[in-house]
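User: Hello! My lab partner asked me to get a predicted holo structure for this protein. The small molecule is 2-acetamido-2-deoxy-beta-D-glucopyranose, SMILES included with the sequence. Please write out the structure tokens.
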Amino acid sequence: MIRPPRVDKMRWRWALRQVLAVLWVGLGTSCPCSDPTLCIPLRGENQFEVFVFDVGGKDWKYYDWSKVTTVAAFGPYDPELLCYAHANEVRVVLKGDVPLKDIIDRDNRIAWINNQVQLAKKQFMDGINLDLEEAAAYQSVEYYALTELVVETTQLFHHEIPGSQVTFDVPWSPDCIDGRCYDFLKIANSCDFLFVMSYDMQSQMWDDCFAKANAPYYQTLSGYSAYISLGIDSRKLVLGVPWYGYDYPCTQLLEAGRCALPKIPFRGAPCSDAAGRQIPYKVMMQQVDSSITGRFWDDDQKAPYYIYMVDNTYHEVWYDDPQSISMKSAIVKKFGLRGVGMWNANQLNYSNDPSAIKQTEDMWNALTEENGELELSNLDIM
Ligand SMILES: *[C@@H]1O[C@H](CO)[C@@H](O)[C@H](O)[C@H]1NC(C)=O
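Assistant: Hello! Below are the structure tokens for the protein in complex with 2-acetamido-2-deoxy-beta-D-glucopyranose.
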């Protein structure tokens, strides 16, 4: 006997509902978001990346979500952040950090990568930012293992979490900075993009021992030129700017901008920014107006600084502000880079005092403004 088609249709519907219910419950039991669809990892590529490092707490509630495209969650897992980011079409990625010695063995390496994929899935995340910053000699076992790590991490993430993003943090230049002689071209080609850490540029001072800018403009520029000269596609590079500065106690202050430092060697160089202390932007903004000098601008390094005194010691503080940052963001357009980002988003004053709000807005806007363009057009690019 032939059943009326209506019944078949109803059965099919019923079956579909069962499948959906199982999926729904599967997501629903562990999905922390009120809307379970917010636990689905994001897909698709952003034309312009704004890559944000978050180190924990609830500052993220005050970020400029009209700009952010990816949050690298370097603090404890915060499900509330995950749901909020996904509701704004923003990716949240894991911090990937493992000692190089633990990934030389292939089985260990694959096991580590599998753990990261499982963790990302469990937390409904959208990828991983690999932040290994150890020294590796050119063509050493570490050098090859690191490249393999990036290749395999990208393959596994892309396969297991479709649409996921795998990125890798690189120093301001590919020129063996702090002993990091990696296979940058292969690493760039293997993952989605590189986050270029254009800061801590005084980690090795080879010439003299004076306080300098965290991220001098021309040095920043030369780093991108060097990466592109290696054959790396400029769309594989995200420009990283610092939202912190360095406070240097001077052994002697010869004049403003000539603050002599104690000699603290680092990886072969006689002096280092280790003579100073990293300071968040919000702290410097509390200090600059009452300092001896107020804000000074160094036109060679294209960076602001100020001098204050405590316990009979002069301190010179070098930092980045909207003026120096917007000059750097002009590099993004100039070189056709993938986007911009900062270490880290928590360094601003997110209180609701009007002056703090203005200060914070100006910093977020500097990421995508190009105030430096006028000045840039008169300069020869190195
Ligand atoms: C943030 O700004 C407000 C207003 O200027 C100020 O009172 C507060 O101390 C600042 N907080 C920090 C951590 O700098």
